[in-house]
TrEMBL record:
Its EC number is 1.-.-.-. One of its GO terms (molecular function) is oxidoreductase activity. This is Oxygen-insensitive NADPH nitroreductase. It comes from the Bacteria. Belongs to the flavin oxidoreductase frp family.
């Protein structure tokens, strides 16, 4: 083991923060780490909106599903897929392809993970905010995103005011395949994991509930997931071809 692995393997989402600010030096290092992430074809097809205006933070917290920590965290970063910059450089650029959307989403996630790991290395904590996509058009308007820029997710950062238990991950045998995908699901292994998750939810120090992983997935995938996204993406010049 080494400090980097210790940091990665100790990951927990932090949703409660102290009032202590993140210093300018810390923020500069976090953003430098984000920009150091790999970039497909060196397109650098992402932008980050640092939201410091309190009223705007409150508005984004509301749009993300009334998640109070969006307003309360020391820093809130909005990660975007961005091809507006490219079209400014090359006015006749061929954009709108699904592959470009994937690049923007993947590279944005790589940037954000670098940012969070950098923050955690300084003793800070954070949580990703996928709820930004609950109202992508309103979020885009609120922060002035031009055509061919879409909000992907947010990242709250700050000094932790909690030490939550670590959520168990799926058994590796259900995730890692060798050479070929193993289509036959190990039901016994899954049942054991469901029991582990039920025990975790019942024993954790906050937000106790009675639910297995399979039950949680059934609830999430048993209904439409943001069905408005396709129309939104196309309205912003994405996912056209």
């Amino acid at each position: 083991m080494n400090p980097t692995l210790d940091l990665i393997l100790a990951h927990r989402s932090i949703r409660q923060f102290t009032a202590e600010p993140i210093t300018d030096i810390q923020l500069d290092q976090i953003l430098s780490a984000a920009q150091a992430a790999s970039s497909s074809s060196f397109l650098q097809a992402n932008s980050i909106i640092r939201v410091t205006d309190k009223a705007l933070r409150s508005r984004l917290a509301e749009l993300a599903g009334y998640q109070a920590y969006v307003a309360q965290a020391a820093e809130f970063l909005l990660f975007c897929a961005d091809y507006h910059r490219h079209c400014e450089v090359v006015p006749d650029a061929q954009t709108g392809f699904v592959e470009q959307l994937l690049i923007g989403a993947i590279d944005g996630a790589l940037m954000a993970q670098n940012a969070l790991l950098a923050a955690q290395s300084m003793g800070l904590g954070g949580v990703y905010i996928g709820g930004i996509r609950n109202n992508p058009a309103a979020v885009s308007e609120a922060v002035g995103l031009p055509h061919q820029v879409i909000p992907l997710f947010g990242l709250c950062l700050g000094h932790p005011a909690q030490a939550p238990e670590q959520k168990p991950r799926l058994p590796r045998a259900l995730v890692v395949h060798e050479n070929r995908y193993q289509t036959e699901l190990d039901r016994e292994l899954l049942a054991g994991y469901d029991q582990q998750i039920e025990a975790y939810y019942q024993s954790r120090s906050s937000n106790n509930k009675q639910q297995s992983w399979s039950g949680q997935i059934r609830g999430i995938l048993g209904k439409e997931a943001r069905p408005f996204m396709q129309d939104f993406l196309r309205s912003r010049g994405f996912n056209l071809k």
